[in-house]
Amino acid sequence: MALILHNTLGNKYEEFKPIKEGFVGLYTCGPTVYNYPHIGNYRAYIFGDILKRFLIYKGYEVNHVMNITDVDDKTIRDSQIQNKTLKDFTSFYIEEFFKDRDLLNIIPANTYPRATSYINEMVKIIEKLKDKGFAYKSEDGSVYFDINKDKEYGKLSGLNISNLKENAKGRLNSDEYDKDSVFDFALWKAWDSKDGDVYWESSLGKGRPGWHIECSAMSESLLGKTFDIHTGGVDNIFPHHENEIAQSECANNQTFANYFLHNEHLQVNGQKMSKSLGNFYTLQDLIKKGINPIAFRYWIYTSQYGTKTNFTLETVSGCEIALNRLRDFYINLGDEFGEINIEYKNKIIEAMDNNLDTPKALAILWDLVKDSNINNSDKKATIKDFDNIFGFQLTNIKKEIIPNNILELVKEREEARVNKDWENSDRLRNQINLLGYEIKDTGTETKISKI
């Protein structure tokens, strides 16, 4: 079965064919470490993890690079506000990101390059672009990419660049800008007083890199001049990924990445979740509200990565109920692992081969759960196999052993309830609670768990 992916480059569905058989070079735009990532950012990172898990499931060896942007306009600005060195400031948020990554059960990338460690590589690319006539130095000593020199500029975003270039008579020094702002962009920013002590001495002069050149240098250094797949959120398409393509392909005269995959926005009340709008949640916000990070991961799977999805606490809480049901079911299947059911395995591969159709894959998982024609041991082996794709940590769940004295109290309470002795039933519930256990009465059974 062939893996079909929607390639933003050309805006079409394509069969995935790696450069080297059996191997995949994967680059994910990682966090800019000036604050805690919000859960909209984590949709992009979980999407990259879904893709990576499925590639591994299909037998590929994946070399995954996720960059850390530890120098840009925002990291410099906020480190100065906190009166910290850039390294101390960004190191804190890098560690916080890694903690969140682990809570979400995202497989660590092979490499997490920090932009500040690749300044020399960036300078080499910029010098190459200058020598080829694609870049020029401005009056203040900054170096800009001349988009009018790149005949293919705009091929990723699909903007009508031929018209826009006529109006692109200025330069833009800011790292991020609006979709309508088509200007020459900064490759190297000459030092000014706002940068404080953040600068590097180079053949380009005293200064620091622009944001876009960072990813080009890190991906080339770790994956080569051409690699297989580049992922990120749709907000990265323009200008960031467009500019990466321009500077890399003009410098090297070869394709930058063969496939670009982008996940859609996570919205709140119909608006994109973003720090600038103040309508965001961090992962710690969800945890404080009692939501398991893996339940958020489960919720991400309920929407196809290329569709916008609206976040509410209610829908994620509903997914936590479903996740807990799945975990309880898996535990209660017993301790024996039988054979993986090939029919269901083929079904889930077919769903994921169709541009990573995670909602359908989830539906197939629940069909398996409800299928009475499959014995428990085979069902357990198949669900365990599927969790290599889902990452719900089912194999980490241990069946809770309830002490005999608690079970005796539960039995007494059940007898009191049968006799409608509600006062004694409440007394026994309180006693069980004081001993560190909680009772939940459902319509058909009583569940006991540690508080």
Topology:
Elements: E1 4-7, E2 12-15, E3 23-28, H1 39-57, E4 61-66, H2 73-81, H3 86-103, H4 119-131, E5 135-137, E6 143-145, H5 161-166, E7 171-172, E8 184-190, E9 200-202, E10 205-209, H6 211-223, E11 227-233, H7 237-252, E12 257-263, E13 266-268, E14 271-272, H8 283-288, H9 293-301, E15 309-310, H10 313-331, H11 342-353, H12 358-370, H13 376-390, H14 404-418, H15 422-434, E16 437-441, E17 446-450
Parallel strand pairs: 3-4, 3-11, 7-8, 11-12, 13-15
Antiparallel strand pairs: 1-2, 5-6, 6-8, 8-10, 9-10, 13-14, 16-17
The total tally of domains equals: 3
Count of individual helical segments: 15
CATH topology of the largest domain, anyone?
A: Rossmann fold
The percentage helix is 40-55%
Keywords:
451 residues; 3 domains; Isoleucyl-tRNA Synthetase, Domain 1; 15 helices
What does this protein structure show overall?
The chain is an alpha/beta fold and 451 residues long. The chain has three domains: 260 residues, 3-Layer(aba) Sandwich (Rossmann fold); 129 residues, Isoleucyl-tRNA Synthetase, Domain 1 (Orthogonal Bundle), CATH 1.10.730; 47 residues. Helices cover 43% and strands 16% of the residues. It has 15 helices and 17 strands. Strands 5, 6, 7, 8, 9 and 10 form a six-stranded mixed sheet that branches. Helix 14 runs antiparallel to helix 15. The longest helix has 19 residues. The two termini are 46 Å apart. 39% of the residues are buried.
